[in-house]
Amino acid sequence: MQQYEILTLSDKPALLGISTLEWQVQVMGVLDQMGYKVHAALDHDDFMTRFTQYQYQVTLIEETFYCASLEENQSLKYLQNLPMHLRRHSTIILLSETRQTLNPLQAFALSVHGIINHADFGNLEAILTKIISENELFLAPYRQTYERLIQGKI
């Protein structure tokens, strides 16, 4: 049985679905520098279990995470088919060798918030910051309204 660590309210959890070790090490290092507590999924089942156990602020998934092609990526398909209210808490980013970095149409077509091409990993922190910030800005009115609703102010 997989052991899961306890997260506190101040933690910034991030989930990785990356099977290319070089990419995983690089991404983990950048996320650690950005203050995230990083969990790396061991396989598709572990990825899906972890995603349902924690509300990850950031989720990064490799297009060929334990598969040969994007179309075979079970974890990405899982995320794409989740109802929005079950995945809205996380900024979902696809890591790719074939897709263009920060291409909004490709990201929209794949139901992710952003794409980072491996060729641009040299600017990984800046690109991650941009995608995460834009997603937080986009969702800010929703989150504010939701909080006011919970507090009975609406």
Explain what the structure shows.
With 154 residues, this protein is an alpha/beta fold. It has one domain: Response regulator (Rossmann fold, 3-Layer(aba) Sandwich). Helix content is 44%, strand content 16%. The chain is built from six helices and five strands. It has helices spanning 21-33, 44-53, 74-81, 84-87, 104-109, 124-150; strands at 13-17, 37-40, 58-62, 91-96, 114-117. A five-stranded parallel β-sheet has the order 2-1-3-4-5, sandwiched between helices. Helix 2 runs parallel beside helix 3.
Layout of helices and strands:
Layout lengths: L12 E5 L3 H13 L3 E4 L3 H10 L4 E5 L11 H8 L2 H4 L3 E6 L7 H6 L4 E4 L6 H27 L4
Parallel strand pairs: 1-2, 1-3, 3-4, 4-5
Helix pairs in contact: 2-3
**What's the number of helices?**
6
Low-confidence stretches: none
Average residue-wise pLDDT: 92
- CATH fold-type name: Rossmann fold
Summarize the helix and strand pattern as letters: EHEHEHHEHEH
* N-end to C-end Cα span: 44 Å
Under the CATH scheme, which architecture would be assigned?
3-Layer(aba) Sandwich
- Beta-strand residue percentage: 15-25%
